[in-house]
Design a protein that fits this description.
With 469 residues, the chain is α+β, with helices and mostly antiparallel strands. Helix content is 23%, strand content 25%. The protein has one domain: Chloramphenicol Acetyltransferase (2-Layer Sandwich). It contains 10 helices and 20 strands.
């Protein structure tokens, strides 16, 4: 089916053997493969035996605030925070050797003590209040730090992971929260050194702490502290709970989330089908051509999302996704560096017509102009459940996530920015999700990561080929 596409690299990777780490938590796995439209280069295939030895010599330690946070300090996550507790952000920053030249483990850790003075919540552990609502005890238990070695050079790795996106899971911890809340770190950092001296900095971040924009600024502030600058952190608003007393007839359940469970203290999404992940790069030229097909100027995120919405509607012809969820940066939020799940808008678009018969431009316009903010409804639903409900956000509906405004490339080590960065979210529900990220270089390219049920992926790729021709 794909033999006529001139420049194509495709590799399918099956679940790989776990690398054990000291934790009581299970690990997340998925079948992944990557689709990259690029120049015709020699493929670098990775055998299962080689995969197990690619990243090795792991050493674990903990790091936390340099000063004592105090006794009985508790942070109460908001309803919106708790609505994301089954999701986990996984981010990777790739740096050249110059960024870490001469830096020992001690020198890497030293600025972190100051860093976590500003983010002591991330070094805490979950407990439950008397009512059962999850809270974070700021007990300075620390985040887990992992040091590892890789026998490939940075350039070799970047080419390999383009053919096999599952390789990136070797560069961050896949731990979740639970089943023992009090022993589960909320944040993991993994520093993987390549043979050439380059470094991959992997962040595993419990989404309950904050969205992708918060996590990106969390890392950017480490870079500022490394440079001897003051971190950019607005006054951290205290998360508050609220009592909902609306009459029953005025209560409207949110469309953006799906209630599941209960999962109790094992914070993980359980899927009814196997999901697969693949990524593709879209150049500015291709984006322009996609908009030109409609004779109108369409923003990249809406253009790509409308295209994918139509493709998936064709695949699911007997149950088209008439409701989609959109997550994107809230332009009205001016806070910087705070922990929050309110710096992104969670909204829905609902239609009552055939997606397949609608034009690309019509769907793009609806995504841009007719999205309805669901955050208040989600907050209210969680508070009605006293903070005890278990929700799936990403993949409850087909979900489009705009990460173009996440400042991944502002993170610096020794004044050097990453040559590449990636971000994915674990815990996606059965309806799938699409993540649109900025490309690694200037020029307007986008990286699109798609998570779908495995039985839909082959047809999706075939349709995608036609759209991007």
């Amino acid at each position: 089916m794909w033999k006529d596409l001139r420049y194509l690299k495709l590799k399918i990777s099956f679940p790989f053997e776990t690398i054990l780490e000291p934790s009581l938590s299970p690990r997340l796995h998925s079948l992944s493969f990557s689709l990259i439209i690029t120049k015709n280069k020699k493929k670098q295939m990775v055998s299962s035996n080689e995969r197990g030895s690619l990243v090795h010599s792991k050493r674990l330690s903990s790091v936390g605030p340099g000063r004592f946070s105090g006794h009985d300090i508790v942070y109460e996550p908001s309803g919106m925070d708790l609505a994301t507790k089954l999701h986990y952000l996984r981010m990777i920053y790739y740096f050249p050797s110059q960024a870490f030249e001469g830096l020992t483990t001690r020198k890497i850790k030293e600025p972190m003590f100051t860093w976590f003075n500003h983010y002591n919540v991330t070094a805490g552990r979950f407990r439950r209040s008397e009512s059962g609502r999850p809270i974070i005890k700021c007990n300075d238990c620390g985040v887990r730090m992992i040091e590892a070695q890789c026998e490939k050079t940075l350039d070799e790795w970047l080419e390999m992971k383009d053919s096999d996106s599952a390789l990136e899971r070797l560069l961050f911890s896949e731990q979740i929260i639970g089943p023992e809340l009090s022993f589960s770190p909320l944040v993991y950092l993994q520093y993987t050194k390549f043979k050439c001296g380059g470094m991959a900095v992997g962040l595993s971040w419990a989404h309950v702490l904050g969205d992708a924009f918060s996590a990106a600024e969390f890392m950017n502030n480490l870079g500022r502290i490394l440079a001897g600058k003051e971190p950019k952190i607005s006054t951290q608003p205290k998360a508050k709970t609220q009592t909902i007393e609306s009459p029953k007839q005025l209560i409207e359940d949110p469309l953006a989330v799906q209630q599941i469970g209960p999962v109790e203290d094992n914070w993980i999404t359980v899927n009814n089908c196997k999901l697969e992940t693949f990524s593709f790069h879209v150049t500015l030229d291709r984006l322009t051509k996609l908009s030109d097909k409609n004779g109108t100027e369409i923003p990249p995120f809406e253009s790509l999302s409308a295209m994918i919405w139509k493709i998936i509607a064709k695949i699911r012809y007997d149950h088209e996704p008439k409701i989609v969820t959109i997550c994107r940066k809230d332009a009205t939020k001016k806070e910087v560096g705070t922990l929050s799940n309110n710096s992104q808008v969670v909204s829905v678009v609902e239609v009552d017509f055939s997606i397949g018969k609608a034009s690309h431009g019509e769907l793009a316009a609806m995504l841009k102009n007719q999205a309805k903010d669901e955050r208040k409804k989600i907050e209210d639903a969680m508070e009605r459940a006293k903070g005890l409900a278990d929700f799936v956000l990403y993949g409850a509906n087909l979900t489009f996530v705009d990460l173009e405004e996440a400042k991944f490339y502002e993170f610096e080590y020794s004044g050097i920015n990453p040559v590449s960065a990636s971000c994915m979210i674990d815990g996606v529900g059965d309806n799938g999700a699409v993540f649109v990220l900025p490309g690694p270089k200037t020029g307007g390219a986008r990286i699109v990561t798609v998570v779908l049920p495995e039985q839909e992926v082959e047809e999706f790729k075939s349709e995608l080929k036609e759209w991007l021709a």
